[in-house]
Amino acid sequence: MSTRHVAFPALLACALALLPAPAPAAAEATRFDYRLAPQEIAPGVHVFTGLREDFSPANGGNIVNTGFIVGSTGVIVIDTGPSRRYGEQMLAAIRRVTPLPVVLTINTHHHPDHFLGNQAFPAATLAALPETQRGIQKDGEAFNENLYRMAGDWMEGTERVAPTQPLAAGRRTVGGRDIEIVALDGHTPADFVLIDHASGTVFAGDLLFHDRAATTPHADLAHWLAALERLATLPARQWVPGHGDVTRDAAAIAQTRDYLEWIAATMREGAESGLDMTEMLARPIPARFRGLAEVEREYRRSVVHLFPAAEQAVLEKAHAR
Amino acid sequence: MRPTTVLALATLWLCSVADAPAAVPVAVHASTDPLDSARWGDMAKTFFAGRTVVFDARVKVVAPAIAEDSLNVPVSVDASGLAGVEEVLVFADFNPILAVLRFRPVKAKPALGFRLKLQQSSPVRAAARTADGVWHVGGTWVTATGGGCTAPSTGSGSPEWQERLNQVSGRIFPRSDGSERLRMRVIHPMDTGLAQGIPVFHIEELTLSDESGAELMRIQTYEPVSENPLFTIDMPAAGTRVRARGRDNNGNRIDAWVTQ
Known about the structure:
The complex is a heterodimer of chains A (321) and B (260). Chain A is built from eight helices and twelve strands. Chain A has 321 residues and is α/β, with parallel strands linked by helices. In chain A, a hairpin with a 2-residue loop joins strand 1 and strand 2 (45-48). In chain A, helix 6 (251-272) packs across helix 8 (295-320). The N and C termini of chain A lie far apart (55 Å). Mean pLDDT of chain A is 91; it is low at 1-24. Chain B has helices at 2-18, 40-48, 160-164, and strands at residues 24-25, 53-55, 60-62, 73-78, 85-92, 99-104, 111-116, 122-130, 135-142, 168-174, 180-186, 203-209, 215-221, 230-235, 241-248, 253-259. Residues 1-31 of chain B have low confidence and may be disordered. By secondary structure, chain B is mainly beta. Chain B has a ten-stranded mixed β-sheet. Chain B has a three-stranded antiparallel β-sheet with strand order 3-4-7, with no helix packed on it. A three-stranded antiparallel β-sheet of chain B has the order 10-11-14, with no helix packed on it. At the A-B interface, helix 7 and helix 8 of A face helix 1, strand 4, strand 10 and strand 11 of B. Chain B: Residues 1-22 form the signal peptide. Chain B: Keywords: Signal.
């Protein structure tokens, strides 16, 4: 204990001595700046690519991909980011591209990094699949509190705003843009996918992870794998994953499928051989997945999410004999 | 806090490996706690007043450094590095109810896997009492966002559990070294009494025995054990069936056979 108390101020003093003194006003202005820079991946189709990290006070929750599509009469927004500040800065970035009104703001699913920027957008434009609306109503505040813990002051002033407009699958013209909504599930109970037909862009939400380990707190792996099969059949020239870089080939689908199949098999085999959860947590990650960002952390989270059902199936089967 | 903790543990390990005495006897004093917990002094008074206590790296407690789910924190304790363990007590310094469970290994390995509820970040410790009466304490810090002990159980909010209360599912797994592993789950809400309007309701006792009726292990569980408790127990080959008998604090009985 004494070591810590002595060492820490000394370290701090050293670190301060090495740094140039910041101008206080400038420091404040850049403090909560996500530095959102949209990338135009096809005419009128823009993406903000997040970091391949977990939530932290350093990144303010900017770990997610969001985007917008500019039509002839309006703008479609796909996900709003992890905080009020992110939503506001996202809208400001959209305004630097187009003066057209936002006509539809979609939350692809009910995870906090995809809807906590909703406050910045016109309430009447907020829309989601019905199960996502329910999820945000039910768990949104708890998610918000948890992100305050994980990302800190970036979250200041953030409140859960649930979308009121239910979305249904199908093709339609919105803001002068030919889009199609595909309603899937597996990452969560409802996962929204959008096809922009003019550009062949598919916004896959968190059904697709690219060079970043998939997260599974509300996953149904069998449904998710079925959803990936469906994604592979869509008329796509490029894919926007929920996390990781935009890609022009289907390799991200194969990568996400490979990882989820391994997770499912690992849970099943571990349960069948009688492993305890702490032994499951200690298992090494196969070499082919070690390049996925956050895989060590996400695998362990997935054990906690998914192993109980796997072991229960094995124990109840034995008991029924 | 973490770097200090790790350093202290590492030091303890080095001592026990390099020096002759495998355990390092220390006085029961807050400043000697390898986990540097402000609550250690109280733990010592509560559980070990008048007894000899040593911190001992041979009592292993394995748990995730960060709890993904405060209601179900997986923990394995293993005191098989010590000879003649008669009893093991598990507790969490910062839980509102300190004691998690107690077990007498009898014929089984002095080790147990289970899950517990954590109200906040806390050391999770196992204390193993050897035949000479000495308590050997090991442990690890678990960071948790909390609420694990004051949240209502899923069972308390659902009518179905009443029909399945105290139902046992389980299986005996043969191990490659010729021993056996028992994994079993009991349906029970394990309500702590700390969630408003929900009275305390938990399994108190669970005894495992072989077909001849000889006792294999005896477990006493307290409120912080997770809902629908699941135990992992290693033991010498005990035959094809193990009987699990016990009761909760309302006198409801548990009685089931677990097979291969």
